[in-house]
Amino acid sequence: MALLVRTDMNNLWNEEESHRHVGDVALRVYTSRLLGRDKSLVLHGGGNTSVKVVEKNAFGEDEEILYVKGSGWDLEKIEATGFSPLRAEHLRRLAKLPALSDPQMVNELVTQLTRASAPVPSVEAILHAILPYKFVDHTHADAVVTVTNGVDGEARIREIYGEQVVVIPYVMPGFDLARLCAERFAAESGPGTIGMVLLNHGIFSFGEAAKESYERMIHLVGLAEDYLRRHDAWDAREPPTPVAAPAVMDMARLRQEISGVAGAPVILSRHADHNCLSFARRSDLAVVARQGPATPDHVIRTKRLPMVGRDVKAYAEEYRAYFAEHEPKAQERKTMLDPAPRVVLDPELGMCAVGRTAKDAAIVAEIYEHTMDIIRRATALGGYRALPAQDIFDVEYWDLEQAKLKKGGKPAAFAGEVALVTGAASGIGKACVESLLARGAAVVGVDLNPAIETLYRRPDYLAVTCDLTSPEAMTQVLERTADRFGGLDMLVLNAGIFPGGCRIESLASDEWRRVMTINLDVNQSLMREFHPLLKLAPRGGRVVVIGSKNVLAPGPGAAAYSASKAALNQLARVAALEWGSDNIRINSLHPNAVFDTGLWTEEVLASRAKHYGLTVDEYKRNNVLKTEVTSRDVAELAAELCGPLFAKTTGAQIPVDGGNDRVI
Ligand code: ZN
Questions:
Q1: CB atoms within 10 A of CB 552
Q2: Ligand 1 centre and the CA of 185: distance in Å?
Q3: Looking at the structure, do residues 31 and 149 belong to the same domain, yes or no?
Q4: 204 lies in the same domain as 283
Q5: 3-state SS, residue 637
Q6: Which H or E element spans position 248?
Q7: 3-state secondary structure string across 367-430
């Protein structure tokens, strides 16, 4: 018996935890989540699980119900409502039909649900129904896929598992696969059978208890991992390679080109750690990376092939030809995906992931990181062999057909676009981050205050804590923005300081200089440094300057502040003139009396109100419209200035002050 390293390390079953899940469906939720937590077993919607229970129907009769994972749910976060309850007997009868088209099968599944609000069941539902066990677990485990995608994959699988599993040749997921599994399982399973391996696809385990089925999965996958270890294929790594150099403009140019081919702005995320870089520098890259995905389940995310190098046009041509070859009518039936790559492998850039959103790009990157490991190990084992292009195409085409059936929401206004906000930790800056994220942009938040690091934890938000008065920090912001998202479309110049009141005759040069540096100089540096990226923005660059009422109506005691904001205003006007030919728009907002910014404590507000003989509320609404102006009001307008409503406006200055009699 092989040493079961995986069983010790990766069995996440916890007796105490399991007792908190009462009933079959609750335990099904519990072990499904255990599988989902292990990314070497299932990735992003991959894998599915089921449990069979007897329930009373409306007539008071006992009926066997198959609870199978619903589409759109991830095992890691699945809840009881994520399982689709189906009449099991009907599904087993279907499996005996000689043929059933995919749309017919989906229709049969949906009309056998016993809960109208349930999600559409997994296309592998019939396969779950025909396995005569209460609990069924299915994953696309890396180790199993590595062995089956290698030379002599089937023979090796039989060597590893012997009588423990029934082996099924590759058939696309759907009715035909379920039918084949039913036949083979009936003919080939024996008393020692605890699982089923689907070549080039994944593995099933089953049992009468949730724990039994789960632990069998861990055991079976562990055997494949041990096999890889014994054959020196587990730690297959490329030799050390020099670290990657910064590539700001390379990233921005590549993103612009890919966005052009995709027909919409995309996020381009660079992964240049040793793992990705050394893979992208393999001498046999053109051979190993151009075979196809590790499992057909990945094809809709990563496409059949990554782009090796940077020739986007050639990649798009090849993709169109591949589609035309396998489905001549695809173009006219509008079933072809955009021909842009999803994964880029380049010896200088490493691995780059492409997505319509930052979240999509993060999913692509995670899938491809697993793919690289699978290719490395299968190559070390004797050679990586993906499925023939036709088999992969069938899945790609089927997925597209399925996607058409789903109600696709309109993409967010700024999907695929990137914004940078300075002074993002609080007040107007923080509100701008929220307004831009809400419109689908990926956002870089920059601030001196490290609080920005924990504002959000999501793939479309990057926090950079730094002091932009230092040139090194400026370079760092530029490089991190380009690496993480591929470029910049929108720049919100918000950071600034408002020092305490001081008359000119007492204003020290140091203080004057400090205010000018932060409120003016830094913004000019940001504009200069980010101009090349803004110029490459797929929909044109946008800059929003958060100015001040003081530009139009200065007050005594604020000479440095008013002068700095007036100079910034003039800088923006010149930029509007200079950058129009680069398709970059720049507009300014002049807020006044925004009190929810943290600068204004209750005490300061109270004392200012008293000074004018007003209540705090009257003081807050001391404007023509008698309205209160919030950070959110300013942020929403800043975001709209970047949108299509202002597509033909540049060099504008808009007050956000409730109306000020000195400005009007
Ligand atoms: Zn599967």
A1: 19
A2: 17
A3: yes
A4: no
A5: helix
A6: helix 248-262
A7: HHHHHHHHHHHHHHHCCECCCCHHHHHHHHHHHHHHHHHCCCCCCCCCCCCEEEEECCCCHHHH
CA proximity to 42, closest of 336, 298, 313 = 298
For 125, the enclosing helix (H) or strand (E) is helix 125-130
Encoded tokens for 455: 């504002």
More confident position, 114 or 7: 114
Mean pLDDT across 143-163: 95
- What's the structural domain count of the chain? 4
In this structure, the answer to whether residues 221 and 104 fall within a common structural domain is yes
Task: Quickly count: other Cβ atoms within 10 Å of residue 12's Cβ.
Answer: 14
Centre of ligand 1 from the C-alpha of residue 116, in Å: 25
pTM: 0.92
Determine the distance separating the centroid of ligand 1 and the alpha carbon of 387, expressed in angstroms.
15
Cα 161 to Cα 159: distance, rounded to the nearest angstrom: 6
β-strand partners of 493 = 545
**CA 127 to ligand 1 center in whole angstroms:** 10
Q: Compute the distance from residue 411 Cα to the ligand 1 centre, in Å.
A: 28
Instruction: Give the structural domain span for 386.
Output: 248-403
Beta-carbon count within 10 A of 207 CB: 19
Q: Over the stretch 241-277, which tens digit does the pLDDT of each residue have?
A: 999 999 999 999 999 999 999 999 999 999 999 999 9
Can you give the CATH number for the domain in which 365 is found?
A: 3.40.225.10
Residues 361 and 284 in one domain: yes
How far apart are the CA of 202 and the centre of ligand 1, in A? 6
How many whole angstroms from 180 Cα to the centroid of ligand 1? 14
* Same domain, residue pair 611 and 556: no
Residues with Cβ–ion distance below 5 A, ligand 1: 202
- How close is the Cα of 132 to the center of ligand 1, in Å? 18
CA-nearest of 551, 550, 492 to 523 is: 492
Same structural domain for residues 585 and 612? no
Q: Is residue 567 part of a domain?
A: yes
Cα-to-centroid distance, 205 and ligand 1 (Å): 12
Query: Is 4 within the bounds of a domain?
Result: no
Summarize pLDDT for 38-71 with one digit per residue, the tens: 999 988 778 999 999 999 999 999 999 999 999 8
412 in a structural domain: no
CATH of the domain at 475: 3.40.50.720
